[in-house]
Structure formats: structure tokens, C-alpha cells
Amino acid sequence: MKENVSMNEIANIFKVSKVTVSKALNDKPGVSDELRKEIKKRAEQMGYRINSAARSLKTNKAFNIGILIAERFIEDPASYYFGVWGKLTTVLSDLGYSAIMETLTVKNENELNLPMMYSERKVDGLIILGQLKKDYLNLFENFDMPVVFFDFYIKDSNVDSVVIDNFYSGYQITNMLVSKGHTRIGFVGNIYSTSSIQDRFLGYYRSLLENKIPINYDYCVSDRNDDGQLIELTLPKQMPTAFVCNNDQVAYRYIQMLNKHGIKVPIDCSIVSFDNTIFSTLSNPPITTVDTHVEEMVNVVTKVMLKKINVPNKSYNRILVKSSIIVRDSVKDLTSKNI
Amino acid sequence: MKENVSMNEIANIFKVSKVTVSKALNDKPGVSDELRKEIKKRAEQMGYRINSAARSLKTNKAFNIGILIAERFIEDPASYYFGVWGKLTTVLSDLGYSAIMETLTVKNENELNLPMMYSERKVDGLIILGQLKKDYLNLFENFDMPVVFFDFYIKDSNVDSVVIDNFYSGYQITNMLVSKGHTRIGFVGNIYSTSSIQDRFLGYYRSLLENKIPINYDYCVSDRNDDGQLIELTLPKQMPTAFVCNNDQVAYRYIQMLNKHGIKVPIDCSIVSFDNTIFSTLSNPPITTVDTHVEEMVNVVTKVMLKKINVPNKSYNRILVKSSIIVRDSVKDLTSKNI
DNA sequence: CTGAAAGCGCTTACAG
DNA sequence: CTGAAAGCGCTTACAG
Asked: Does pTM surpass 0.70?
């Protein structure tokens, strides 16, 4: 394989200028169709590869998108973000962009150091995967490069974000329980911990309101302390017929805890949760959960990013992506005849 | 934030040339310490960011490493490769390199299309994460860019690779079972399916040989067909006291199958496996497994890659990274007094 | 220690 | 349709 073929070399072969070769290869007007075809063919044969550094230097576009993720999110091998990561890479690639990944260390986050891919001008835009410290996120207000937050948002920010519709998801899955005849429904999760748990809880509450079911805090239990550290799961003061758990992992643990107390799912108690992660399929029984449509979220975030790159000062605010219920075996139908 | 500060701008402020600024910022000799310090300070204040496209154009080094992974490996949300991916990114970043990720679609693999990051000269080297089709891998023989295979190797290849020492791992964990008094030991896995299963099996066999335990194929069962598709797990013709499973996921499934037959782990039967993935911790009981030292493998592969970039024609062949046993609760000690 | 000059491989605006 | 010229922002080899 030839090491370095340049446009100039190809131009010499055809006795034309490199300008013509550039136009031919980039599908720009100003070359006859025939010549264009010949040049493209020859370039391919010669193993021509464009020098994107030279292109970037001229055009000020790197055709790279940076993806920043905090180290703590990838320590968990079952992290939801890995899937996002993979899909982002694939989708960007289809659009002619490469994905540069960088992990943000605790140190860099605390010291407010911007990522290397930014300070070396390697990327045209930045996608922030998962919530970071407020101070760090503030760096991106009025930033000199397009930035989109993925899977979280912060209040009073002018940075665009793409998030799941947690509120609606909570509403939806609780409605489903009600439609199966459940009226005593609990919630598992610390509702003061993250905005995503809070929104899911509020959706759950909305469903109760709409169905004229009074909320009963005796059915509700916490799953973590205010610092986000998981705590031991307990039975509520009174037992409901169903629980809405704030995510699959908690649901998985909750089922194990119930089993220890001799309570079988879904015979004695129904469980639903959110995220459609590996925990929902590995659980016994497999859990009815809310799928977050990662694919759709990724499509949306890349589309927004490319628009922002081309029209810098437009704002998209908070974009909600809808979700859908995946029905598995953790919910009992109380309305069916064969109880 | 100022959009575009160049070396020239900084040079004008100090009434020196951009050459001096370049030397100062890059810690190259030829500038007085005092001036260097002043320039660096000022550059920081002005928000100077190097234009790596310009640097690349001159030096022919992008300071990007490409990581190629087949789409099929990231479809499984619990894929072992995600962790590798994350660590690679972190380690490369520490060394001043950015990681460009690209997924290889089935189509591109079949049509032998090289990755975009290569054909646009965006990377200085390529790490291939996980085995690809032979034909595709053949593209990298005598390639015009450093390439390292990660977690697999192919025979008769001159491409360097970094792999776990599967043979030794199998040997080691089987030795452990023997030391706990087990002599009837089975193996779970199709030994004709992948080189990694085969190597683990051969390590297991070596331990038996060394301990003068005749191998008994009646203790062994398959876990997948020759195409790699998982099949239903069954009990062997005779029951051993322990099984070496070729990976955690299989072990997880095998324990579930044993439970269905009323066989309890580790009371009635011991289980060990490989990889230390989420399946080994989620299992009940948690499984004693072989940890693959991802961190070490990543350190090795990046070190090799950087060496190859700097000294292109040196060869490192197959580098084996050792592993270690993580003891959990799935093995019964047959030698202890309190049986 | 410092700098003038050349040049990396493209793209763009303009002229013919 | 085609090309000469300029220039993107650096680095390097060399001269002073």
C-alpha cells in the first residue's frame, strides 16, 4: 500500500490542477462528469486518503464530535451509558463524523479543566453524557462551541439537552398497573435524590390523582441516601399490591428482598421499573419495565448537534424523548377471572 | 471566551516571533526560561488552544488512536468490551492521545471497507477490539499504520496482539479445585467453537494431567453450537463434584439449570468460571471466577501502540497478560473437617 | 537565545 | 469547465 498519495499526485497524472481534483473528489461543481468519474476511479486505485488535518486547517471543521463522560459512570460495567456510547459512535459515523471519547476524571471535574479534545480543537461540538457537577456544567454556558447535555438537564441553563420523558414514563407505567386492577401501589426510591427519580415519582403521582387513588406514603420506601449511596431495602409499613421501582437495578434488589420475606413476584406482589437494562431481563421473573429508546435519543442528539454546528446560535432547549413499556412477567392482572 | 487565539497573536504581544512562542509552549529548547514562563502564562490567560490540525499537517501525527469494534460486540449491553473501551480512553488520554471509536458494521466487514478514521488519516494507529472475519483481518497484514489486535490472535499473522493467558488461567483455576479436594471435574463449553474456549479447556486438561486425574468426557457438556449460538444446557452423563465453565454467563445459566434439577451450588456441586463480569456477581451464589486484568491489558496495549508509532517496524508478536482468581462462594472445600 | 523562510495538503474566491 | 494564487496555523532546519 502506497504511503502518501496527495491530490497533487493525482492531478499530475491527469495533467490537471489539484483544484480540479479537489472539486472532483468532493462532488463540487466545476468538473465535467467524465473527468470526475475518472479521477475518483484513479484515486481509489491509488489508495488515496484525504488528509483531514489539511482540510480542517482550511475549513475550521474537524468532522469530529466529542463525547465527554465522567469516570464514575463507566466504573459500573453494566452502565446504561455504554450502550449510548456505542450507538452514538455508529450514528455519527453514518453522518461522516467520528466520535472522540474522553473520560472526565474526578480531579479534572473538580479543577474545572476542560477536556483535551476541546483545548486542542479536535472537535466541532461536545455531547455531555450524564450529569456532572454544577460548577463544571456552568463552564458550558455561552460556550464557544456547540454543546448538548444528554440524559440530564439543569435548571436556568441555556445549554440544550436531550432527555427521556421521565414524568410521562412514570405516569404511563402506573396507569398500566391501575388498568390491571391495582389500587394499592407503592414507590421505591429516594424522591429527593435525583431529578430523574423525582420526575418518575411525579408521573406516578399524577396517575394516582387522575385515577382518584389517594397517595399513601406508607406504601413508599427509599432506596438510597441523599448522597446517592444505596441503602438496605425494606418492606413498607403497609404492603401494597404493586411497586413502581425507580430503576431496574433497584427492582432486581427489591424482588430479592421480597423473596427473602417469602413474598413471591408476581403472585403476591407486582413490580415494575424503568430503563430496560440487563437487570430487568436477568431478574426472576423478568421485569416489566420502561424502555428508554436509546436509539431515538441518540438520533435526536446527533441531529441537534449537527444543526448547531451549521447554525451556531439556534437554541433547542430541552427535548423530551418518549419511552414505551416492555411487558414481561412481573405484573399480576387482578382483573382477570382466573385468579 | 475569545474564539480564535493563534501563536502569532501571542507573539505580537511579546514582540517576538511565532517560532519562539511555539518553542515556549511545546517545551522545546531555544527560549529563555523567563520568557517561556511569561508566554505560557499569557497563553493560558488568553484561552489559547493549539490548532491540532495545523500541528498534524506539519508533523504527520494526529495524536489520535483509532479503536475499531464490530457492531455485534456492542449489541450485548453487558459486553466485556465496554469496560475495555472506557479504560482505553482514560489511559490514552493520560498519554496525550485521544481515542476515536468506530464501529464496524456487518456490511463494511463483508465488503472489506477500511474504517473512515483510517481513510481520512485521522489516527496514528489502530486497535482492533475483538475478533473479526479472517478476510477483514488480513487487510492489516503489512499495513501502513501500526495495528494491534486486542483480546484475540490469529495464526500465521504478523500483526501484534495482546491477549489474556487463557491456557494458564484454565490451568490455574482447575488447580484450585483440585486443591480443594475435587477430582471429578467437568467442563462446560463447546471446545471447537473459539480459540479462547479451547485454550481454557486445554489449561483445565493440563491441570488434570499434572494431578494424574484421568479426563472423563462424560463430565463435560457443550454450551453452544459450532456457529456460536447458545444451546440449552444439560446435565452431563455422570455428575462430577465441580464444573469449570468457559465464562461467567454460561456459569450463571448453568447454576440456574442445576437449581431446576434440585442441585444446589456449592453444597451439591461447585462452579468456577472466567471473566469476572456482572454475571459472576449477580449470580446466587456469587461465582469464583478468573479476573482478566483489563486494566493491565489496556496498559500493555497502549504502551505497545505508542512504541509502534515511534518505531514503526518493530514487532511484539503475541503478548500474554496474566490473570488471577477472584474467590467467591461457589466452591465447596471437600478437604475441610466441617463438611 | 531568537527569527526568517519554507512548507505540510488541502479549499476558496476569483479570473479566464 | 479549469486553474493560479493565497492562505489556514503550525513546525522544522538553518542562520545569526
From this structure: yes
